[in-house]
Amino acid sequence: MSDRNSRAFVLTALAASEDISRILEENPKGHVHSVFNTSFNLAFGEHLVHIGALENGLAPFGIGMDQANATLLTKLLAVDLEVVWDETSMSLLFPKGITLSMSQVKWTNHKLQPFSYDLLHLESNFRFIAERILQADWQTGLAQTEEEKKRIIQYIVDPSSSVDEIPVLDKLDCLRTLVCHHEQDAEKVFDYWIGRGLGLTPSGDDCITGICAVLSALDGVDQTFLGKLNSYLEERGRKRTTYVALEYLLYATENKFHSHLLQLCYVLDKPRGPEFLKALEEMKEIGHTSGADTLVGMLIGMKAAVIH
Predict the structure, then answer these.
(1) Is residue 79 part of a domain?
(2) Disulfide-capable partner of 210 in 22, 155, 247, 298 (CB 3.0 to 4.6 Å)?
(3) Over the stretch 201-233, which tens digit does the pLDDT of each residue have?
(4) Neighbours of 107 (CB within 10 A)
(5) Is residue 113 part of a domain?
(6) How are strands ordered across the β-sheet holding 40-44?
(7) What is the reported pTM?
(8) How far apart are CA 22 and CA 168, in angstroms?
(9) How far apart are the C-alpha atoms of 271 and 120, rounded to whole Å?
(10) Looking at the structure, do residues 55 and 176 belong to the same domain, yes or no?
(11) Considering its fold, how many domains does the chain have in total?
């Protein structure tokens, strides 16, 4: 809607992660970091804020809008434009009178709370997810061919199977043993996986995010892996991967995740019904291969941590 008196063009945000308020309070002046087809990132200090359509889910550093308004605002912006947080009006102020009001947002908590799990249902859903990823319409950036994808999933389901011929299987084995906190050179393992693959969030990063989600979700599971990952990211992250992927990974080490991933985690050990199937389909819609890559990581996490 347009307010002609102030000549401001005001759009309204619908939801936002609770972490956004902290980011904006600490760094009220920022700029447009990156612009995509229907969403964009803002940078405030060293933190990103992602703004897009709420129906696509919410990042742990996200603000959600109505689809049409998100697309419209995206078209009005360009990289490096200044943006200022005005606490009085609870609004993000862009040049040319463009305003995004946060006064009516629903604040969301993205911290995954660990829960006591039902091992039988967890094992059943583990096998179901593995079989679903094997279907042709699920693409993972970790595999170059359908045969390679099949071998990767076979290995995850049964780690005693051969890791010969396909190099990535040997690397998956190192990653799995690091999750079990067996003796493993964490830096060497992360050097291989962090930043591996194409896109805003490379496949290796998505896979590790999936592992972090499972370790965060299941009560009583050792989280040493998350601590090792955090240390690695603080020291080497910016050299290894994209700005966006690094942000997701840093939040993952704090047990904070995208809303679609949270929804799947919370039904991971429940009898499989419409809620589980919907959560799985929503994961599939994340990025080109990000959803499937994250699920591969979840399978590794489940296998390494609880399904021996």
Answers:
(1) yes
(2) 298
(3) 999 999 999 999 999 999 999 999 999 999 999
(4) 12
(5) no
(6) 2-3, 8-12, 98-101, 91-93, 82-86, 29-35, 40-44, 47-53, 62-65, 15-17, 106-108
(7) 0.94
(8) 40
(9) 9
(10) no
(11) 2
